[in-house]
Amino acid sequence: MKKMYKITTPEGIHARPAALLVTAVTPFESDITLTFQEKAVNLKSIMGVMSLGVKPGSVVEISADGSDVEKLFQTITDIMVSKEIGEEL
Fold this sequence. Notes:
By secondary structure, this protein is α+β, with helices and mostly antiparallel strands. It has helices spanning 15-25, 46-51, 69-82; strands at 2-7, 31-36, 39-42, 59-65, 86-88. The model has no long low-confidence stretch (mean pLDDT 97). It is found in: Cytoplasm.
């Protein structure tokens, strides 16, 4: 399963948004990947996520595979919207 998100936070995905996302997805069993400009990292790795340098207005792809992907994407979308990190496209 894949979804695209546009990053709306003025700082892009820096330490705070990265930590919120990583913390939210870590309990899930599914493998989850964040892709930006043809670079893919494990969304459960805060250093990996921050290494992408995602800027405001960028579009990222999140893909996941596993038994709990529906709940996982619900959680990601909730965090993106409620914390004003991004919006689902």
